[in-house]
Amino acid sequence: MSKLKKPEDQLGELKQQVRHLQAKLRHHRREERILISKRIHDLFGQILTGLSLNVAHLKNMMCKTFGEQLPPYLMEEISEIRSQIEKAIRTVQCFNAELRPYSSAPMGIVYSIERFLEEVPKRNGIQVAFHVTPKNFSLDRTRTDILFLIFQEGILNVIRHAQAKILRVLLQKTGGENIQLTIADNGKGMTKDKISDARSIGITDMRERAEQLGGTFKITSRKGKGTSIVIEFPELRARLKKCQGISPCASIVLLCV
After folding, report:
1. Contact (Cβ atoms closer than 8 angstroms) between residue 97 and residue 254
2. At what angle are helices 201-212 and 7-66 packed, to 10 degrees?
3. Which of 17, 25, 205, 234 is deepest in the core (most CB within 10 A)?
4. Where are the domains of the chain?
5. pLDDT at 25 over 70
6. What sections of 100-197 are H helices per DSSP?
7. CA–CA separation, 244 and 257 (whole Å)
8. Nearest Cα to 44, choosing from 89, 83, 87, 86?
9. pTM for the whole thing?
10. CATH architecture for residues 103-253
11. Can you tell me the distance from the alpha carbon of 119 to that of 114, in angstroms, rounded to the nearest whole number?
C-alpha cells in the first residue's frame, strides 16, 4: 500500500501546479499578443496608409479644380482629416509597441528602465524620477530580463490603478551586497486585502519572479499615501530558482500606455 502524503507535501504539489498553470497562461498571453500585433499591422496599417494617400490625391484634384489656392474652409477640413489619420496611425503604432515582445538584455537594465520611463510623463502625465547607484550598474542577461519584467509590471500597476502624480524608481546596490529595486508612488494606495489577493496576477507574477532571483518582494501601502514596492536579491553567489514552466529569459513586452 502506498503511503498517504502529508498535508504539507500535498500543499507543495498544489502550489507547484499553480505556478505551472500561471506560466502556461503567461506563455499563451505572449503568443496571443504577437498574433494580434501582426493582424493590427496588416489590416489597420494598410487601411490608414490608403486613407492618407487618398486624402493627398483628393487635395491634388481639388487644387486642379479650384486653382492653387483652395478656399480656407476646404483647407481646414483637409488638415483636420489628415490630422485624425496621423493620430490613428500613431495609435496603431502604440498598440504594436505594446504587444510586440523584445528583450532588454542587450541594452542593459539601466538603459531599459530609462527608455521605458521616458514615455510615462508623455503619455500619462506622471512626474518620474529615476536614480541608480552606482552609475555603472550592470547585471547578467538572465537577471536583467527577470528584473525588468518585475519593474515593468510594477510601473504598469501604478499607471493603471494608483492615480499617482509622482513616481520614483531607485535601483541600487546595498552595503550588504544585495541589489534593490524600489518603485514608489504618491497615489491612492492599496488595501491589505488587495495586496494579499491571490487573484492579483500582476502582484503574484512580481513575487514569483523575485523568488526566482533568490530574493524578496515587499509591498507597503497606506490609503491616500501611495504604495512602495521593494525587490531585493543577492548580487553575488545568487542561484536562480527554477520555477516550473517559467523561462528566466522570457520575452519582454514594452507597453505603450
Report:
1. yes
2. 120
3. 205
4. 9-99, 103-253
5. yes
6. 109-124, 141-157, 192-196
7. 31
8. 89
9. 0.63
10. 2-Layer Sandwich (3.30)
11. 9
